[in-house]
TrEMBL record:
IMP binds at residues 13-16, 38-41, 132, 146, 226, 241, 305. This is Adenylosuccinate synthetase. One of its GO terms (molecular function) is adenylosuccinate synthase activity. It catalyses: IMP + L-aspartate + GTP = N(6)-(1,2-dicarboxyethyl)-AMP + GDP + phosphate + 2 H(+). Pathway: Purine metabolism; AMP biosynthesis via de novo pathway; AMP from IMP: step 1/2. The gene is purA.
Length: 432
């Protein structure tokens, strides 16, 4: 048996929720290892829909342990609100089914405000990133700036005031520069004091917990958020998130060694979408793009923002396969392509007359590349609910095989509807 890392291979929103749900049923522990509450997914269990943005998916399944690792930035108010919302749906979150890393960084109100100040200023200057204004980036900045307030600090009121002073020395200088009102020491202390009693019972030494469970043979599922092309290093910078989203972060963001990761499953949508600003070589601003958006219900789980849609970009996913060390992919939303006369797949780009087999790192070049397409015949039959290869039209199978060949990774799972059982299993990641 092996542990499994789930990562998005595009710009996020690839349909990880359904796949993670299917895998979490068979895992013992589900670990979030990066990001914050700026991304999310929907799980449907026994007809009940659960919308999660910070809590790992294992928390809604009896007998599973959900873990929020040190690589996650945690808004304690958002965490408490999410737990309370689940309680109303009959899911009780306790230390028996949730643990939070003691060394995880907290998102505070000043982070959310700074996120908004900057985005508003950027909107006026044409440099807007398209953040969710949830304070994710500023919290990560404080983490690497070594002035963050961490979960463990909630339990040490003797040392907390000095840490808040250090944090405010930085933030109030920024607020003065932006022409905003400074924040008082008492306001932050009150904010932290108001959540301490709700958060501290879940605190644990997560790396040690996971190491012990691994040695006992527990199946561990590492659950990523966002997608590879939003990675702070490997994505379409600066239009990215503020953390590493690639599979290697599962080790750093949980405290487990890379040798513990096992199977890397890349969730891959059968076409391409992205939310927010930034380059998108295969974007379709026409009736086909509209068709994909409407058929695929392309709206963000957390923000409700409409997603931009385009043809499948094999060149981008090929990069993701390399950056993550992807073992196999879960290809989702194949059914959205039903009924199209023809389908296009981007296999390379052209830039200033030269052909490139990858997306360059330069922001200017990313904005200037043009996709090189191959065209495949579409299919009129429905693929919705297919649970075996025999249920698929011949042209749909041809499309899947072409994707496999172009990205250099096999399809391990094929999803043909939002329903969890409408999945064709080729390779079981936990048994590979």
């Amino acid at each position: 048996m092996t542990n499994v890392v789930v990562v998005g291979s595009q710009w996020g929103d690839e349909g990880k929720g359904k796949i993670v749900d299917w895998l979490s049923e068979r895992a013992d522990i589900v670990v979030r290892f990066q990001g914050g509450h700026n991304a999310g997914h929907t799980l449907v269990i026994d007809g009940v829909s659960y919308k999660l943005s910070l809590l790992p998916s294992g928390v809604v399944r009896p007998g599973k342990l959900a873990v929020i690792g040190n690589g996650v930035v945690i808004d304690p108010h958002a965490l408490i609100a999410e737990m309370d919302k689940l309680a109303k749906q009959g899911v009780k979150v306790t230390p028996d089914n949730l643990r939070i890393a003691d060394n995880a960084t907290l998102i505070l109100s000043l982070h959310r405000e700074l996120d908004g100040f900057r985005e508003d200023a950027a909107s006026n200057s044409g440099t807007k990133i398209g953040t969710t204004r949830r304070g994710i980036g500023p919290a990560y900045e404080d983490k690497v700036g070594r002035r963050a307030i961490r979960v463990m600090d909630l339990g040490d009121l003797d040392t907390l005031p000095a840490k808040v002073d250090r944090l405010l020395t930085h933030h109030n200088a920024l607020r003065r520069g932006l022409g905003e009102v400074e924040i008082s020491h008492k306001a932050i202390m009150d904010e932290l004091s108001s959540v301490a009693a709700r958060v501290l019972p879940f605190m644990d030494t997560v790396w040690l917990l996971l190491d012990k469970e691994r040695r006992k043979g527990a199946r561990i599922l590492f659950e990523g958020a966002q997608g590879t092309l939003l990675d702070i290093d490997h994505g379409t910078y600066p239009f990215v998130t503020s953390s590493n989203t690639v599979a290697g972060q599962a080790a750093a963001g949980s405290g487990m060694g890379p040798g513990s990761l096992g199977y890397i499953l890349g969730i891959t949508k059968a076409y391409t979408t992205r939310v927010g600003e930034g380059p998108f070589p295969t974007e379709l601003n026409d009736e086909i793009g509209q068709f994909l958006g409407e058929r695929g219900h392309e709206f963000g789980t957390v923000t409700g923002r409409k997603r931009r849609c385009g043809w499948f970009d094999a060149a981008l996913v090929r990069q993701s396969v390399a950056a993550n060390g992807i073992t196999g992919i879960a290809l989702t939303k194949l059914d959205v392509l039903d009924g199209l006369d023809e389908l296009k797949i981007c296999v390379a780009y052209t830039l200033d007359g030269q052909e490139l087999d990858h997306l360059p790192a330069s922001q200017a070049q990313q904005a200037s590349v043009k996709p090189v397409y191959i065209t495949l015949e579409g299919w009129k039959e429905s693929t919705v609910g297919a649970r075996s290869w025999a249920d698929l039209p011949a042209q749909a199978i041809k499309y899947v095989r072409q994707v496999e060949e172009l990205i250099g990774a096999p399809v391990a799972l094929l999803s043909t509807s939002p329903e969890r059982d409408d999945t064709i299993l080729v390779t079981d990641p936990f048994e590979d």
